[in-house]
């Protein structure tokens, strides 16, 4: 697993299913505005969490691109789910700022809730069509910058679904090592 450590915060990249990260306090959902079960990450998270999650989400919806909300994790093996609405590429603008906002807000919610470990999927890079490499630079850029100031979070895991996506994450994380 490729990783780097900044200010005692480990950022790591791995292949896997976001709904099977049993050792993480929190997992992040690539949500839709209504916070309903959908395909991809949202489908996997809601399937594993059970109907209680859908019920809890109803009162928190709708959310806007760039926003994030936190719920309990129900039947998932975690304590919390942080639901982020990424931008639909080519529709929600400025896409880069909205995507960065998702990652920043999720990290802020984690800090406020005493979360020590969190797993992120590659938000917006599936159904929402954000090009993976550009999205990766934003995700890892926010994480590496935020790591300098985190006090609660100790472990940030990027969970990729495809080996080719993991290779891009690893390469960008490697490049960032040279810049800080
Ligand atoms: N674990 C980790 N990564 C996954 C998983 C999984 N189980 N499944 C897919 N991915 P997406 P978005 C990867 O479409 O683009 C939903 O229907 C996938 O390969 O889940 O933000 C919602 O309801 C891709 O790289 O999220 C929304 O309507 C990345 O996760 C909409 O899709 C994100 O893919 C959100 O679209």
* Span between termini: 20 Å
- Record the strand order, biggest sheet: 1-2-7-6-3-5-4
* Structure annotation, total helices: 5
Under CATH at level 1, the class stands as Alpha Beta
Write the H/E string, N to C: EEEHHEEHEHEH
Q: Note the main sheet.
A: 7 strands, mixed
Over the alpha carbons, how many angstroms does the gyration radius reach? 15 Å
Helix content: 25-40%
Structural class: alpha/beta
CATH topology call: Leucine Aminopeptidase, subunit E, domain 1
Q: What share of the residues does DSSP label as strand, in percent? A: 15-25%
- Summarize model confidence as the mean pLDDT: 96
CATH superfamily, please? Leucine Aminopeptidase, subunit E, domain 1
Strand segment tally: 7
Number of domains: 1
Organism: Thiohalobacter thiocyanaticus
Protein name: Phosphatase
Could you characterize what this model shows?
- The chain has a seven-stranded mixed beta sheet with strand order 1-2-7-6-3-5-4, with helices on both faces.
- It is of the alpha/beta class.
- The chain has a single domain, classed as Leucine Aminopeptidase, subunit E, domain 1.
- Helices cover 37% and strands 21% of the residues.
- The radius of gyration is 15 Å and the shape is globular.
- Residues 17-19, 30, 32, 38-42, 44, 86, 121-128, 159, 161-162, 165 line the site of ligand AR6.
- Ligand AR6 binds at residues 17-19, 30, 32, 38-42, 44, 86, 121-128, 159, 161-162, 165.
